[in-house]
């Protein structure tokens, strides 16, 4: 077998056998707006309207921060703040909003899993996206978060962020989003937008539905990338021989 053929076979083996996966969490939520201000509307102008939204979380980029790990809760955040790993979008009255940071995730972004009362299984999960901009004359920030409560089951069982996708959030309270209720599952959504005192907008909504799904996205492992480099070397050799 020629050296070129051996090189090609070796590269193929590496790209075939070596792989890695990133777990992507995606979700959808909906709710009824209970309090609103701004967004070009009169105070309370969106009250009673339906709000919908989407969630996207890259668990590969997210990392558990040691200072967040305590006896009752843990939080997942980006340790170096330069990965875009969480995204929340929300829509109402025909408009879509998102506190997107264009380049990286801020230190406030995160997912908190809180085992509030271990004796009677009262837990909550918080998903937060935050954006901040600043210059010499102005600063602005906006953020959005979901609170997800479960007053029935012990939902915080692992530090693995992907595990929350296996939970079932079917609201059982007579008033969805009323998280002071003594039984059932509930949650609410809050978004806030501030721009140097010129505009302040916020939305509160009681959640009526939430779904979370996990999907593994193949990523090339270290050896797979090396194998791809060997492919390039093989074809460059062929090109040189033909010249």
From TrEMBL:
InterPro entries: Ice-binding_C (IPR013424)
Ice-binding protein C-terminal domain ranges (all copies): 216-238
Top-level taxon of the source organism: Bacteria
Keywords for this protein: Membrane, Signal, Transmembrane, Transmembrane helix
Transmembrane segments annotated in the record for this chain: 220-236
Signal peptide: 1-22
Name the UniProt record assigns to this protein: PEP-CTERM sorting domain-containing protein
Provenance organism: Saccharophagus degradans
């Amino acid at each position: 077998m020629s050296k070129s053929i051996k090189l090609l076979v070796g590269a193929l083996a590496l790209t075939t056998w070596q792989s890695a996966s990133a777990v992507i969490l995606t979700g959808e939520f909906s709710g009824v707006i209970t309090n609103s201000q701004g967004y070009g509307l009169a105070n309370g102008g969106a009250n009673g309207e339906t709000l919908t939204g989407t969630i996207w979380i890259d668990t590969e980029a997210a990392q558990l921060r040691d200072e967040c790990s305590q006896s009752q809760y843990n939080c997942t955040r980006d340790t170096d703040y330069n990965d875009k790993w969480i995204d929340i979008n929300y829509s109402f009255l025909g408009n879509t909003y998102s506190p997107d940071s264009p380049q990286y995730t801020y230190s406030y972004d995160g997912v908190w899993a809180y085992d509030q009362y271990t004796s009677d299984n009262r837990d909550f999960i918080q998903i937060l996206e935050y954006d901040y901009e600043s210059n010499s004359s102005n600063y602005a920030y906006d953020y959005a978060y979901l609170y997800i409560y479960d007053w029935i089951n012990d939902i915080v069982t692992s530090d693995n962020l992907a595990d929350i996708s296996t939970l079932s959030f079917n609201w059982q309270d007579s008033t969805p989003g009323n998280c002071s209720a003594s039984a059932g599952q509930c949650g609410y959504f809050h978004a806030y937008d501030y721009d140097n005192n010129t505009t302040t907008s916020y939305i509160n909504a009681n959640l009526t539905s939430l779904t979370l799904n996990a999907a593994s996205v193949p990523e090339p492992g270290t050896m797979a990338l090396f194998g791809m480099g060997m492919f390039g070397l093989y074809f460059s050799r062929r090109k040189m021989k033909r010249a």
